[in-house]
Amino acid sequence: MRVLIIVLLLTLITVNQHGSAVNGGDFTGDYSKLSGIIIPGFASTQLRAWSILDCPYSPLDFNPLDLVWLDTTKLLSAVNCWLKCMILDPYNQTDHPECRSRPDSGLSAITELDPGYITGPLSSVWKEWIKWCIEFGIEANAIIAVPYDWRLSPSKLEERDLYFHKLKLTFETALKLRGGPSLVFAHSLGNNVFRYFLEWLKLEIAPKHYFQWLDEHIHAYFAVGAPLLGSIETVKASLSGLSYGLPISEGTARLMFNSFASSIWMLPFSKNCRADNAYWKHFSGGSRHGHHMYHCEEQEFRSNFSGFPTNIINIEIPSIRRFDAYPSVAEVAEANLSSMECGLPTQLSFSAREISDGTFFKAIEDYDPDSKRLLYQLEKYHSDPILNPLTPWDRPPIKNVFCIYGLDSKTEVGYYFAPSGKPYPDNWIITDVIFEVEGSLFSRPLVLESLSYFIVLSSMASLIGGSWVAQVYKIDDSKHALMLPSRPPYTKLAGGLISKPPFVTLLKSGDLVEGNPGAASGDDTVPYNSLSFCKNWLGSKVNITRTPQMSNSVPSIIPLNFYQIPVFVVSRVIKYFILFPISGSDIILVCEPSMEGVHIFFILPKLGDEVILTLGVSILPQLQLKPEHDGSDVQVELNVEHHHGEDIVPNMTRSPRVKYITFYEDSESIPGKRTAVWELDKASHRNIVRHPVLMRELWLQMWHDIHPDAKSRFVTKAKRGPLRDEDCFWDYGKARCAWPEYCEYRYIFGDVHLGQSCRLKNSSADLPLHYL
């Protein structure tokens, strides 16, 4: 899983006031003294070299403190050297004999993985969060990053780096320095790290002081994109490799990923299977080091697929073994030339339980050399004396818990594998993928409805399961796949612009698959049932509110003749595009979708397999979708009945063209505690930490908790107006700045378009008071 990441936006403006009991638990201290602790996710922390490595045939060597993760220059020029600094021994998790890497420290370790003019924006992780904190006046010592070596298992993190001891000291130091508790934001794997810390803490603090320590040091926990039941994409990375966009082969990516013990940490597992509680065994006199029983409820065997939409793995096993699991190229060639019809392969299917308990890896042990190594690490997880992470979560014992995730994106939930006929590590291929898409399962990538305005470059297409598939985006940022009859040709260029491009004829939708799809789909990386498991933390009565994420008044496309075209250098590689023809012209605008809006560029000559954009038209300020709404489409249901173990599906209307955010809130079931679940339509797992709507809601919730005059347990959802100058924009339909009650036209030298001159009124300092 790609970066996948942890967050911690903390709080806000300096207000030397005391909170009432209405605001977050029973804390009545000075909320302006809150700290924010950011726990990053998988592959979201920089790693630096801690040794000297001479790289032959390359002018670039590795010296102490050189960037390893991520330095794309060295990756491209000396990939073998780079791998030595990245991989670990798959058994004892020690470094390569020739190179060691260690996590960087501080905020710079998590803002941009590969800083630079070109690579910086492409590898940005927490940079936008930090900018929001600065804009709202957060002091520098109030934001604390706690990076870690995301390659290691939790037990190794403590054994080698004393990470959890240091994390405990971080909370205690923040309390002493700032005078108040901390806010914890975790994204993706970072949530698993924080969960393990809470269990580890039970063995460090006397039981009677455990909850007191948590109340004093942690005010709220924001779990963003938490894979509470694991991530299915992990299986894909373990068997066939997942490059996450890096310029390395999938086989190389597989070798690297399977050397990390953290790969097991993210495996999918059943919600019906648990392990003995090692903590209580320890205090009752039991051994802390024995194997802990892994047992499943009867529901596991009565239901299909371990609570997931379908079987996660369907794999063909050869009926006759013709060569070792790690064959030579000659053996593979000889086997391919021999008669293969002597025995038909056997197809086996495996559920989440059968993956997490090792059944799957034992079944392919004779055919895959990584299975023994993965089984070894899997056993270490199951026998961990602190916590078996491959067991379902209980609600963390923290006063305020917010579970936040994206949904309704196309997400992979099952794979069909077959032997590839190639040697390890490329010995498996994916023959089919099962996706969940908004409550349905499809065996082939979904395709767009009949459209004629799309062109696909060959660099955008991949061979998946024998079919060419390309990914494109719609204007609403939703990602879709196109099934193509053949590999698309390179675009023919004339005079630097596309002339009479070959349009692709799109096919119909994929085949519907039977299974147990949820009410929605996941966030394009983690399936819905894993993300939404935190709904079990809500009580029997839940208040539900659904609001638009942003205003619908911004036009989706603005004609080109509205603009003078500024010329500037983009100089970066973009793979996925939306294409719009300009009426009466042979010019096609190539749009790169982003979380902030849509950038529009002309295509100029390409190099190699990628299209290099060096000249463009920027209409970002006008197309930017602003994170506000006027309250006209807010829906509320109070005291909705919720049964533990069942999903909550609100009976609310949806406009197909609007992206919503749905809030599930409970402040009654556990006295003095609050639990909330936020669902953001179409929010991508990897980009959610940069989502402007999420940052807005986090800030408003914390502002609400800060203020002594807050009259409700949660911030009001009735309306969302602009909070920053960037939230104001020009309304071309009315020829004025939108939100005139908050924004005004105020030109400042250097503004290049009307929207940039729309700014908050000077009288808008009390804007946050509207949300109490």
TrEMBL record:
GO molecular function list: O-acyltransferase activity
Record bears the keyword Signal: yes
Protein name: Phospholipid--sterol O-acyltransferase
GO terms (BP aspect): lipid metabolic process
Entry-linked PANTHER family: LECITHIN-CHOLESTEROL ACYLTRANSFERASE-RELATED
Organism expressing this protein natively: Quercus lobata (Valley oak)
Matches recorded under InterPro entries: AB_hydrolase_fold, LACT/PDAT_acylTrfase
Presence of keyword Signal: yes
Keyword annotations from UniProtKB, A to Z: Signal
Signal peptide interval: 1-21
